[in-house]
Amino acid sequence: MKYKIITLVSIIVIVVVGSVIYKEKSVDTPEKPVIKIGYILPLSGNVAFLGEGVKNAVLLAVEEAQKKNTKYTYEAVFEDDGFVPARTVSAFQKLVDYDKVQAVVTFASAAGSAVNPLAEKNKIIHFGIASDPNIAKGDYNFINWTPPVEEIGLFVKEAEKRQIKKIAVFGQQISGITEMIKELKKQISGTDIEIVYESVTSFGTKDFRTQVSQLKNSGADYTVLMMFSPELEVLTKQIREAGVKIPLTSIESFELSDNPGMFENLWYVNAADPTSGFTKMYSDKFQKNPSIATPNGYDILGIIVEATESIEKKSLPNTSDITQALLRINNYNGALGNGLKIDADGLVVSKAVLRIIQDGKSVTIQ
Amino acid sequence: MEYLIHIAILICIYGILGLSLNLIVGVTGLLSVTQAAFYGMGAYATAILLTTTGMNFFVSVILGMIISGVVSLLIGFVLSKFKDDYYALGSFGFNIIVYSIFLNWQSLTRGPLGIPGIPRPSLFGFTFSENIWFLLLSALALLLVYGVSQYIVKSSFGRVLKAIREDEDAIRVFGYNTLFYKLAIFVIGAMLASIAGSLFASYITFIDPSTFTLNESIFLLAIIIMGGLANNKGAVLGAVILILLPEILRFVGFPSDIAAQMRQVSYGVILILLMLYRPQGLVGEYKL
Q1: How far is CA B201 from CA A187, A202, B47, B206, in A?
Q2: Is the dihedral of CA A336, A296, A313, A120 positive or negative?
Q3: Which of A46, B170, B207, B224 is deepest in the core (most CB within 10 A)?
Q4: CATH of A148-270, one of 3.40.50.10140, 3.40.50.10330, 1.10.530.10, 3.40.50.2300
Q5: Cβ pair B76, B178 in contact under 8 A
Q6: Please, where are the H alpha helices in chain A?
Q7: Do the beta carbons of residue A357 and residue A265 sit within 8 Å?
């Protein structure tokens, strides 16, 4: 038995080491030099549906890039991290070391935070689809997500317009939502708006009856939901069952629901809208509407293509060249609209929008 | 090569965790599902001390061990009164409490935002910034923990632990205070797990509570069951296999639209097959 085990472990080790060494020594000779972009997405686990949406959009973006007469061939490589930061790091190392990617894209703030220092150290371009602005710190790090300051800014403006004074907030324990609540508290200070009730629960919480009864007595004018599916729908159902009449609104959440009809005629603030052209292209190809963050994933590939193609260099541009070119992007026409640019902090500048659910679909009103 | 070094570092970290849990579950027969809590305590101690006070990594490791030791002493005192399934349930609850503290004590742990920018260890002006050096450090830590574990298992203290595992009532008849022995090994296991946490925090340079959930404790239990209970080599072997396996599956050419799901299914099937044909683990000496 001892020898069988030693043989088994030896075979596993030889296969891994051999495949990595073989890959390192093998020489690809495609017609055009290849630029590889690695996408680390949650393709398994609770939020796999969001990762799948981004993956589909990236496949579309690759198709679009191939149609153009580009100097380089662009390839997307996908890795699953199951929404666990430690696995994001493993995926990053594999993409950089084995697939030799020039750029890496991560999903959500925790994954972005884990990859940020590695991207700087390895001089690999990193785009985070995340709201934590710290992820864009450094020379090689960028964010393509409407920042919390934009979304909350629009929310506060709308709340003032509607003369909302007291709000109740429901959130979940995840970095993106924590950043949002922090920003909300910052922006309402000095206004007439106050948070009269706040509840932040962990993923998997399904019984909100205690919080709902506290909400009932809170005197809030509006309830702001910042939650993921399915907790979002469970909470909404329990609020309605308890007969609470306080109107609901959200920041992004209604967009994340797989049952938007539950929120009929409710307004909310969302990250930048995908263009109708992108929505149609996506729906035609995959027979469903693009989920949240899909235009961001699509645009990241497009922006990298545009930046790389703009480099006047006979040899294959390195990541430093591409980074410089990215900072020169100031009029990119993509899935999030026209005239997109990257600011000096590494943020792809996009505006928040005000939306409403009508006939079970989200419609932009501002 | 960096990828292989990265995997080797993870194997060292999980090897330490496997060894620490093996002392509690394998050698003593206490079904503990709380090791991720002590792993997290070490990680958070190092992360907080390094980012806020600029303390030396090695001092933070020792402080992390002390914190884990004190907490495990308190909780272990309660757990040591339980046996079998009740012990497992108690430890299960403790893991959830610690996870909730990581998540909710935002002024200290930053909650779900996590702690970014944790520096790499340095000693006498030398920083372990390159992964190869970090691997050396991790391997040294693994060797040290392996040595301590072997010493415990082979000592008279270890023999009493094994006797507790086989028949606690019988050993008590001979005048041994089993409560003390169970408590002592629980504290030692927690302190060793804390070392792995410190290494993890400093290596990944970012931690958040999602790494230290109950799922992680179950994964650690799977490592020692897979490798073989009550055998230190088995604990390390289990870490090698369970860390390598998902990485190998990244290279299997599944169709891209179902690759992630197929990897998960394959991982599960391989574990089931291994348990079917080697229920005592690969080099196990004891079966739960």
Answers
A1: 33, 23, 6, 6
A2: positive
A3: B224
A4: 3.40.50.2300
A5: no
A6: 2-25, 48-67, 85-97, 109-122, 148-161, 175-188, 209-216, 231-241, 253-256, 276-286, 294-309, 319-327
A7: yes
Lookup: tokens for A230: 């399915």
Amino acid in the structure at residue A89 = V
Say whether residue B255 is in contact with chain A using an 8 A CB cutoff: no
pTM: 0.80
Q: Kindly tell me if the per-residue pLDDT of A9 is higher than 90.
A: no
Q: Which of residues 210-249 of B touch A (CB under 8 A)?
A: 210-211, 237, 240-241, 244-248
Q: Which of residues 69-88 of A touch B (CB under 8 A)?
A: 78-80, 82-87
Whole-angstrom distance, CA of residue B136 vs CA of residue A12: 22
Q: Buried b vs exposed e over B255-264: b needs ≥16 C-beta within 10 Å?
A: eeeebbeebb
- Beta carbons within 8 Å of A162's beta carbon, 6+ residues apart: none
B137 to chain A, closest Cα gap in Å: 19
| CATH superfamily, with its number, for domain A28-146+275-350 | Response regulator (3.40.50.2300)
Residue found under tokens 């290494």:
B199
In this prediction, what percent of chain A has a pLDDT beyond 70?
92
Q: Are B2 and A93 in contact (CB under 8 A)?
A: yes
Q: Does A175 touch chain B (CB under 8 A)?
A: yes
Chain centroid, CA B201 distance in Å:
13
Q: Around Cβ B156, how many Cβ atoms within 10 Å?
A: 7
Provide mean pLDDT across the span B194-202.
Answer: 96
A177-216 tens-digit pLDDT:
888 898 999 999 989 999 999 999 887 788 999 999 999 9
* CA atoms in the 13 A half-sphere facing the CB of A80: 25
- A79–B250 C-beta distance less than 8 A: yes
**How large is the average pLDDT for residues A60-83?**
88
Of B120, B118, B123, give the one whose Cα is nearest residue B134: B120
Picking from B17, B214, B250, B270 by the largest number of A CB atoms within 10 A of its own CB, the best residue to mutate is B250
Q: Which two tokens stand for residue B56?
A: 């030396």
- Whether B260 sits inside 8 A of A114 (CB atoms) is no
CA distance A343 to A326: 10
pLDDT at residue A28 tops 70: no
Task: Determine how many CB atoms are found less than 10 A away from the CB of residue B127.
Answer: 13
d(CA A330, CA A348): 9
> CB B205 to CB A48 under 8 A?
no
pLDDT digits (tens, 9 = 90+) for A152-161: 999 999 999 9
Query: Contact at 8 Å (CB) between B142 and B16?
Result: yes
Instruction: Compute CA distances A13 → A7, A20, B23, whole Å.
Output: 10, 11, 27
pLDDT digits (tens, 9 = 90+) for B208-223: 888 898 888 998 998 9
Q: Would an 8 Å CB–CB cutoff place A173 in contact with chain B?
A: yes
**Angstrom distance (rounded) from CA A117 to CA A192:** 40
- The residues that bridge with A347 in the sheet, in sequence order, are A143
Q: Chain A contact for B277, CB < 8 A?
A: no
Token match 């506290």: residue?
Answer: A214
* Window 182-241 of A, Cβ < 8 Å to B: 202
Give the whole-angstrom CA distance, residue A57 versus residue B29. 51
